[in-house]
Amino acid sequence: MSVPLFENAPAKVNLTLRVLARRADGYHELESLVMFADCGDRLTFAPGGALALTLSGATAEQAGGDADNLVLRAARALAARVPSVTLGAFHLEKNLPVAAGLGSGSSDAAAALRLIMRANGLAPNEPQLYDAARATGADVPVCLNPRPRIMRGIGEKLSEPLTLPPLPAVLVNPGVGLATKLVFAGWKAGAAAPVPLDLAAIAKLESREQLLQILQAQPNDLEAPAIALRPAIADALTALHGFAGCQLARMSGSGATCFGLFSSAADAEVAAKILRAKNPNWWVQACSLN
């Protein structure tokens, strides 16, 4: 195969995130409704030759060296399980912020697995593909087939894909990173147990308004500990809330990126333009969540 292959690696947005319990192994049991944005990174793959990775893009410097990059870790994990696969050279165009609650590294890793799968004629449901994704990182399995789902466990328990109405949105990172471990360390269990998401009800949704009602009742339990570590997150949320067209503003994942859901794509574009002008050091992107 002489023509390079490419895959988009979309941003993962945790619309809800409930922490159900702290496990004996130090991890946490989670529940999250996830959608993916129509913006993200782009990964190119030239099969054949030694495994390699080059980077470009606005946030390439944040992506870490070869030892840390999840693209290479995912490729090595799959090769360890399927020794016959042909690897090759990757090029990652990095557009998303790193350590930002958007699962950008996980989405890059999943894109790498999809590319190797295509180049080697592996089936999308190949068990080794999922095993390699899970070995690479907790968020990689949900990114393998980036469609709306409910995640549970530490991310490895996935619902079937959901059909949800598209959500016009603005993603905002106030120029700060967050270590996931520190955010979880600041989480404290509430007095009442979280009410689980109703998968059957979500699967029957017919309108954006119905989805918004569910989202408003299901918070991100990591938002408060994240704000305690990085108060700039609260500034981003306040800025999003200030737009008349913003119907919901919340932090994604373990932060620090926040999302605002808007009544229309036009309102989202206007808000993004204003936010960029007022906050030149913030990363701001209008998008659609699908």
Briefly say what this structure is:
This protein is an alpha+beta fold and 290 residues long.
Explained architecture:
With 290 residues, this protein is an alpha+beta fold. Helix content is 33%, strand content 27%. It is built from ten helices and eleven strands. It has helices spanning 70-81, 104-120, 127-136, 140-144, 180-185, 199-203, 208-216, 223-229, 232-241, 265-278; strands spanning 5-14, 18-22, 28-47, 52-56, 88-93, 149-153, 157-158, 167-173, 246-251, 258-262, 283-289. Strands 1, 2, 3, 4, 5, 6 and 7 form a seven-stranded mixed sheet that branches. Strands 9-10-8-11 form a four-stranded antiparallel sheet, sandwiched between helices. The longest helix has 17 residues, at 104-120.
